[in-house]
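WARN retry 2 of 3 for item q-0093 after timeout on previous attempt; input resubmitted unchanged.
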Amino acid sequence: MTKPIEKSQLPKRIILVRHGESEGNENEAVLEYVPNYKIKLSKKGIHQAQQIGSKIKEIVSENKGSKMFFYVSPSNRTRETTEHMIESTNFPRERVVGVREECRLREQHFGNYQEIEARRKIKCKRNNYGKFFYRVPDGESSADVYDRVSTFVEGMWRDMESNKLMSMISNNNNNNGGDEEEVSLIVVSHGLTILLFLMKWFNWTVDQFENLTNPTNCEYRVLELGFNGEYSLSFHHHLHQLQEWGLSEDMIRDQQLRAHGRP
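OK item q-0093 returned
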């Protein structure tokens, strides 16, 4: 039987952030001549990233032991979002104990250069067929993205079980003792990737996934550690938000139980 993970081995919260508005969000025609991963933030996207940095600062505890560790998709727009988020917090550098590029958090692959009308037809077909199983021609299905996101989540959980994650964070900072370390993992990625992360984490079904709405630019989801050692969306997101995101009554009830303890 696997030994339960002690709460001291777990990050206080996991914050999932979608990148700010990109030049591709602003004008889809960019996708016809710029590789998707090279697309940068728009001016609005830079402002959004700075704003979300301030919100993250409000969420993350202000005690001296509070640390942040970032996992970032390898796209320009996610890396730029991370940079502007960190700059806007004005936290001492020792509180940002790591920024790791994680290729498994990349966006769903839609092929290489993308002709706009063809892209719109693909999205229409995907909606009719089912978002999870529809495979983009020369690209990925959501099921493919789920598989690689799952390996990331499982690896991160193994690091928690072995206490490797917290040991790495402790070794990367100069805390000389006296302050209890509170760690927030911040994952900066893409809308679909974030939904599939949540699907894997909470064991949601395909039908439950199909009803979820995509996060908007720089929208975030906070998974906070509950009293019984499980993570929940219910601490930072009220009932109406969860409903707007497409969570069913059963899914919301599960989040509440995770937050406050199961019978």
